[in-house]
């Protein structure tokens, strides 16, 4: 969805091209599925990974702060899309991932908001990836935090726990070696052990979740040969049309996976909609 634009960061501009915008969404979608999005945003490691890959692929100097800034732009675009989809007179084609409106409504909307033209009666590129990357954040309202905020929150929580434990230890070290103080020490040590056991259990669960996500991804790899076979055997379309549909699905892996789970009738409908979308042009 994103087009080329400049984003300002400490007096410097970093230009995001459309391929770069697609790449950031693809990588962050993978990171989210791997469990590297613990709350409302991603871990710092994910931003570093994106910045490194974009720098290498496009021969630019991309930094994590540039990725963070661009993600905020993506979230704003997602907010616009959500509002448009819910407006009266606006339809939604889930197969083509496209907001559909009549010519009259189109003219009225573009007249009031010229920049909304790119969202209307056009297939929304990377919509599925955007849903994974920012969709949940916008729904819960937790999209104002940056990756720096998340890391600070995690570090603050760890420091708070550490300080509390130190305070408990100092308290039990004071006073005489009475039976009461000894009991207190044992109680504090027990609480510390319980905390450690709980931390280990939580860490194990998180590692298990990540492993499960990675395993699920590996099992759900797209078989291009099988996709080609299934597309080309659809009846009622010429070979060139089916070939174009296959090429489109290969370029959009999430669409391809969704296509493969549809039955024969739904696949045929999808190809028909694909043909209509290719030839669709709003009349003025």
Automatic annotation (TrEMBL):
**InterPro entries, alphabetically?**
Myb/SANT-like_dom
Task: Pinpoint the Myb/SANT-like domain residues.
Answer: 15-107
PANTHER family per record: EXPRESSED PROTEIN, L10-INTERACTING MYB DOMAIN-CONTAINING PROTEIN-LIKE
Query: Where is the stretch described as Disordered?
Result: 155-198
| Pfam families from the UniProt entry | Myb_DNA-bind_3
Give the protein name, as stated in the record.
Answer: Myb/SANT-like domain-containing protein
